[in-house]
């Protein structure tokens, strides 16, 4: 892994000094944030980088393997954050639950209701 891939932020602050115990372990008790687990990287000089990791449930792993779907979800989240939203009709209203066709410039003609209507 290259340095640019590993280091997401190049600003480091000294947190503490530690000594390995008899079993060659160090404690990280002075860190404000601790991750569930870390990947550990070291170089020829003995410098160590701890890269925080998270656990992804097995049922959600497909999303991270499907790059196209993940990119689509990220675009949708970016759109929502930027306020690019489309108000959809409520499905809670009586008789409206079966009408799924929504006409908007972003999703026009791409939903299952439009395909069914064209049949």
| Span of the ends, CA to CA | 51 Å
Number of helices: 4
> Could you spell the SSE succession in H and E letters?
HEEHHH
Described by the principal axes of the CA atoms, the overall outline is elongated
Largest sheet: 2 strands, antiparallel
* Class from secondary-structure proportions: alpha+beta
Mean pLDDT: 79
**What portion of residues belong to β-strands?**
5-15%
Number of strands: 2
**Strand arrangement across the biggest beta sheet:** 1-2
Outline the fold blueprint.
Layout lengths: L2 H4 L30 E6 L5 E6 L7 H5 L1 H15 L30 H7 L1
Antiparallel strand pairs: 1-2
Tell me what you see in this structure.
This protein has 119 residues and is α+β, with helices and mostly antiparallel strands. 26% of the residues lie in helices and 10% in strands. The chain contains 4 helices and 2 strands, in the order αββααα. Strands 1-2 form a two-stranded antiparallel ribbon. A hairpin with a 5-residue loop joins strand 1 and strand 2. The longest helix has 15 residues. It is elongated, with a radius of gyration of 24 Å. The N and C termini lie far apart (51 Å). The C terminus is likely disordered.
